[in-house]
Amino acid sequence: MSVRETYTSLGLSDLEYGRILELLGRAPNFLELSLFSVMWSEHCGYKNSRPLLSRFPNEGPRVLQGPGENAGVVEVGDGWALAFKVESHNHPSAVEPYEGAATGVGGIIRDILAVGARPVALLDSLRFGPLEEERNRYLFREVVRGIGGYGNAVGVPTVGGEVEFAPAYSGNPLVNAMCVGLVRAEKLVRSRASGEGNLVVLLGSRTGRDGIHGATFASDELGEGSGERRSNVQVGDPFAEKMLIECCLALLEEDLLVALQDLGAAGITSSASEMAAKGGVGIEIETDRVPLREEGMEPWEVMISESQERMLAVVEPGRLERVAGLARRYGVGAAVIGRVAGHGELRVVHGGEVVGSVPARHLADAPVYEREVVRPAYLDGARALDLASVPPPGDYGAALLGLLSHPNLRSRRSVYEQYDHEVGTCTVLRPGADAAVMRIRGTRRGYALTTDGRGRHCYLDPRGGGAATVAEAYRNLSCVGAEPVALTNCLNFGNPEKAEGYYQLAECIEGMAGACEALGTPVVSGNVSLYNETERGAVHPTPVVGMVGLLEDVRRHATPEIKREGDALVLVGRFRPSLAGSAYLEAAHGLVRGAPPSPDLPSEKAAADAVRAAVAAGLVDTAHDLSDGGLAVALAEMAVGGGIGAEARLLPGARQDVALFGECGGCILVAVPEERLEELEGALAGVPRARIGRTGGDRISVLGLVDVGLSELAEAYFMDLFEEAGG
C-alpha cells in the first residue's frame, strides 16, 4: 500500500497528512500515523464544530467546572455538586445495536467517574426509523435491551429519556446516553497529568482488539459496508464496570491518585495524550506491559484499542502499593504501563525500544475547518404550508385516539419498564413525568433531569428549533418544580462537509446559544456526533439537550397526572398554536412542513418561572407542558395518568384542529383546587393564563368536538411499542 493509500485508509486527508509532516519535520511511521488518525478524527478532534462551540455560554453562578474536562459540574448546596454529560454511540448502535448501546452507557458512566463523582442516574435519547421496517424494529428492540442490560447490571438507575421514530433515522439510529453523578465539591478530580517520574497505571479490564479505530468509524458516513465493521464496536461487561467504579471511588477517597481519566474513544492514545497535553508534560507508555486478552497484538493496536471498563491513573510511586492493594480487594486489574516524563511527548515503548513518539499537544490539537454558512434550498419548499390544503378531521375523537396510539406519542412504559429506575433508592419521580426527580440522601435537597430533542423543528428551522429544544428542557424541569441551572448537549447532525449539514449545525448552535443566554442555563459539557448519514440521506438535525435543575425541598414537586375531581384547569403561557412542523401534521397527514413559531423566550421563561414558584410554594402539584400533540394530547395524558377525566373549552382565535392539536412553546397546563384558584391567579400575575375547564368524570370532553372515555384513551395510549417492534 502506498503512503497515500495508508493515510487515507486511516481517515486522514492530504491536507492533514501534510500538516503532520510539517509538525513532525519528518514522515511518521505507521504507529504514529495511527495515533494522529484517531486523535484527529471528527469524533475526538471536533474539527468542524470547535469554532462553533465557542458560541455557547459556559459560566454561571453554580458552575464549578465547564467544558474541557470529562464532565461539567454544578454546585448544589450543602457541599454537594452534580457532574453530568451526554454522549452519542450512534454508529456502533447502527451495526451492533445491543453492544453499541450497552457500551455507550458504560462509557458515559466512566466520564462521570473520571471527575470523582459516583454515578447516580442515567437517561437516554433515542431515534429510529419507522417501525414498519424490520431493520428499524430490530435496532429499536436491541438498543433498548442493551441500555437495560448494562444499566441494570451496573447498578445505576435509568430514570428518564425519550424516543422518537421518523424516516430520517432509518439505518442511522441516534443513541445518546446521559449520566449524572454526585460528588462532594472539594473532592473533584482533574485529568491533568503532573509530576515527572509519577507512574501511569491502567485500571480495569484487559485490552483486546475490540473497538480498534472506533473513533474513525464514528467519524464517517454509514454505507453498505458498515455492517462489516462490527470489530469497530466495543464489547461491554457491566459487572467489571461496577467493580471499577467502586475501586476508583475508594482510591479517590484516600487521595491516592494524582489524576484520573477514562479510556473511551481512541483508548490509551486519547487518555494519555490528553492528560499529558493538559499538564504540559510527556507520558511514556510501554505497550508490552499492558495486560492483554489476545495474543500477538501490535503496539499500535494496543494504543488505539477501545476495550471497555478501563481507566488511566497517575500515581505517585510511594502510593503504588496501596493502590494495588485496593485494586486487588475489588478484583480490578492494576498494571503500571508507563510514567510521566518531562519531554512533552506521547512516547510509545515496546521491548525497551521507542517505536513511536509524538508531541502530545499536536495530538490534542486537531486541525479546524471553518466553512461558509449557506442557507440550503430545501428550506423554501419545506417551510411552505397552505393550511387550507390540510382538511380538519371528520371525527376529532378518532383523531385524538390516532395521535395517542402513534409510536411517537404513545406511552413509553413498555420501554422504561425494562430499566431498573429505582436501584439506589433515591428516585422520587420515576419515568413518565415531565422530568425525573432524585433526592440527595440525608438532606431535603433534590435535583431533576431531562433529555429533549426536536428533530422536525430543527429540520424546518434550525435556529428556532435549537432554541426551542433548550426552552422545552427548561419548561420540563419547571413543571416538576426544579430550578434549571445548566445543561449538557449532544449535537447529532449529518455530514458537515456538505453545505446543508454545516448550515444546520451552525444555525442550531446559534439558536441554542441564544436560548441558553436568555434562560440563564450555561452549557457545561457536551458531545458532537457528525456524519449521521446513509445513502438515504442525513438524519434530521437533532441537538439533544440534557438539563439539570435543583429543588430546595424535594418534597415540593409536581407531576402530570390529575389527582382530584373538581380541580380548575388553567393554561399558563402565551397560547399561539400552529400545525407547522407538528406531530399531528406528520401523524395524520404524513407531512413535515411549515414554519414553526419562533420561541418567545422572555415570555416562555416568565411562564415557566411562575409555575415553578407555584410548585415550590405548595400551591400546584399537577402540571404538564404542551408539547407534541398540543393541548388535546397534554390533557389526555394528564387524565389517563390519574384515571380522572376532564372537561375543557378551546380558546378563541384559531381553527379548531389547530387549537386542539397545534403546538407552541411556553405553555403549561396546571390543575388546582377551586378554593386555591384565586391564590394561583395572584401567583401568576403578569403571565398570560386562562381557565379552560375542570377535572372530573371518566371522559375527556372538549366543546362537543371530543368526547372519549378514559378506557378508550388508555387503550390507545398504553399500546405496547414492542408489539409493533416484533416482540
UniProtKB/TrEMBL annotation:
InterPro entries: PRibForGlyAmidine_synth_PurL, PurL_linker, PurM-like_C_dom, PurM-like_C_sf, PurM-like_N, PurM-like_N_sf. Residues 6-47 form the Phosphoribosylformylglycinamidine synthase linker domain. One of its GO terms (cellular component) is cytoplasm. Its EC number is 6.3.5.3. GO terms for biological process: 'de novo' IMP biosynthetic process. The active site is at H43, H89 (proton acceptor). This is Phosphoribosylformylglycinamidine synthase subunit PurL.
